[in-house]
Amino acid sequence: MILPIVAYGHPVLRKVCEDIDKDYPELEKLIADMWETMYHTNGVGIAAPQINKPVRIFVIDTVQIVEGFDEEDKKEYPDEKPVKKVFINAHTVATGGKDWAYNEGCLSIPKVREDVVRPGEVTLRYLDENFVEQEETFSGITGRVIMHEYDHIEGKLFIDYLAPLKKRLLKKKLEDISKGKVRVDYRMMLPK
User: Fold this and answer.
1) Catalytic residue among 72, 136, 149, 154
2) Does residue 110 contact residue 173 with C-beta atoms inside 8 Å?
3) Which pLDDT tens digit goes with each residue over 95-117?
4) pLDDT tens-digit profile of 116-133?
5) Any idea which positions bind Fe cation (predicted)?
6) Is 91 a known ligand-binding residue?
7) Does the predicted TM-score (pTM) go above 0.90?
8) What contacts 168, CB < 8 A, 6 or more positions away?
9) 18 DSSP 8-state letter
10) Is 40 flagged in the annotation as binding?
11) Which of 38, 97, 99, 116 is most buried, most CB within 10 Å of its CB?
């Protein structure tokens, strides 16, 4: 089922989410709904708080990014492989590598894109959809997408990384998003 995306300003986007266990109600359906919602909105990742669930789950699929690489991207990220994964109860083990900027956007903050500086790699410990514990290091575009989605389960948004002046310049756009004054091709859940 395609679910509405929680809009900027909704309090669930600022909650540090809770770990779940394998008895979480309708977990398989929740994950299927997250995939369906992400693909419907043309996203490359979605976290549970974005569909109004304050739990530590996110999904990513970087196929459309990697397949859409131009020649310059292929040179810059020659080892980039598309990744499609479910992350449950993810926690950061380490970050490292050279910090780099990349232009990010977010389904919960539509029509806003800004350069965000993040570490070059992230190591996560998480459970896959079968509740098997994993620990992996991700870098490149995939690492970037994972760090963005991970921030959601920590109650952070990509705009939190922006300089104060840049945030002030975005204030009106953010207010419009929270009031539903931005047109998107998917349903939004506005703050109450």
Assistant:
1) 149
2) no
3) 999 999 999 999 999 999 999 99
4) 999 999 999 999 999 999
5) 106, 148, 152
6) no
7) yes
8) none
9) B
10) no
11) 38
